[in-house]
Amino acid sequence: MIARRAAAFVVAVLVAGVLATEAAAPDFAALQIQPYEPRKPAPAFSLPDLDGRTVTLESLRGKVVFLFFWATW
Predict the structure, then answer these.
(1) Cα(42)–Cα(45) distance, rounded to whole angstroms?
(2) Measured distance CA(73)–CA(66) in Å, rounded
(3) What distance in Å separates the CA atoms of residue 11 and residue 16, rounded to the nearest whole number?
(4) For a surface tag, which of 15, 41, 61, 73 has the fewest beta carbons within 10 Å of its beta carbon?
(5) DSSP-derived secondary structure letter, 4
(6) Is residue 40 in some structural domain?
(7) What is the pLDDT of residues 14-57, one digit of tens each?
(8) Are 47 and 55 in contact (CB under 8 A)?
């Protein structure tokens, strides 16, 4: 009985060690990648729609907004 408890304790310690190692933050510099940065709010702006009415970004809050800027230069 004591041997089982000791074996269970050893297994629990090993599992905890593995989980703690996997939970560590990655070394982004060593991986040569840039970490994800939290979202930043879009600046307030307004643009005319196809009918010539002015639409502000604030009036579209909570909706999906797709901006497509096209230029010929």
Answers:
(1) 9
(2) 22
(3) 9
(4) 73
(5) H
(6) yes
(7) 666 656 555 667 777 888 888 888 888 888 989 898 999 999 99
(8) yes
